[in-house]
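Exam revision sheet. Question 4 asks you to relate a sequence to its structure. Input first:
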Amino acid sequence: MDPRKDQISSDVNIVAPAFTSQHVDWSVLIACGLPLSGSRADIAPTQHLLRNELRSACEIMMRPPGSSKAFGPRQRVAIETLLFSLKTRFPELFKRLFSDHVFKMCLPKHISGKHIKLRRSTTTLLLAYL
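Answer key, C-alpha cells:
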C-alpha cells in the first residue's frame, strides 16, 4: 500500500497527508507546474497530488538555511512562484486546499520580476488540470 495515500476527513472534506515526508519528488512537482527545468514524472497531476508534494517541499523549505536539506535559491523561487500562482489565479482553490500555515509561510514576501516571469508558465500548466 502506498504510504502517501490520502486520509480524507469526512466532516470538512479536506485531504491531509498520511505522514510528513522528508523528501521532495521534484519530477512530480515539475509535472504539477513547478517552474524548474528537469524531467517530468509520467503522471496525471491532480489537486491533491500537488498539495501533498508541495506540503513536503514547504516543510523542508522552512528549515534553517544551514540545514542539510535546505533548498537553493532556484528551488525557493520556484516554490514561491507556484504558491503565488495558485493564490492569485485560483483563490478559491488556494483557500480550500492551501490555507495551512506551512503554505502561507512559503509565499513570497516580496514579489520580484522572477516570480512574475515564472508565473506565466506555471499558470499555463496549472490551467491544464485545475
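Marking note for examiners. The first strand starts at residue 7 and ends at 8.
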